[in-house]
């Protein structure tokens, strides 16, 4: 397998992952953004064939980064033709097994194809 660059961030780390990944475009293979939102929505350009896919995971009960702000970030990327996948969780500003399993599944689907069966899966 060739080396892949996947940016993953939670909360403020997600802001960094989104900001860097959306600017670097073809230098990044994917972005995983958890409990976060796009920091400069007005600076997001249209997707190209080189734009990285994005996984969003957000807690419906998040008191720190509003669910609505995360959802609007996902909607913005979709409107700009990015491959953006949204997942909602019954969490606050945290993560859990279900979210980590969804991230693992997304990585397997997106980047491992047939090799997925040979690699361990998240519990």
What does this structure look like?
By secondary structure, this protein is an alpha/beta fold. It contains 3 helices and 4 strands. It has helices at residues 12-24, 67-79, 97-112; strands spanning 6-10, 30-34, 54-59, 84-89. It has a 4-stranded parallel sheet, with helices on both faces. The longest helix has 16 residues, at 97-112. It is globular.
Structural class: alpha/beta
Order of helices and strands: EHEEHEH
The unreliable regions are: 116-123
Biggest pleated-sheet summary: 4 strands, parallel
Roughly what percent helix?
Answer: 25-40%
Q: Please report the distance between the alpha carbons of the first and last residues.
A: 24 Å
Shape: globular
Number of distinct beta strands:
4
- Determine Rg (CA atoms, Å): 14 Å
Query: How big a fraction of the residues is strand?
Result: 15-25%
- Per DSSP, the total helix count is 3
Q: Taking strands numbered 1, 2, ... along the chain, how are they ordered across the largest sheet? A: 1-2-3-4
Q: What number is the mean pLDDT?
A: 91
Give the structure's gist in a few sentences:
The chain is an alpha/beta fold. The chain is built from 3 helices and 4 strands, in the order E-H-E-E-H-E-H. It has a 4-stranded parallel sheet with strand order 1-2-3-4, sandwiched between helices.
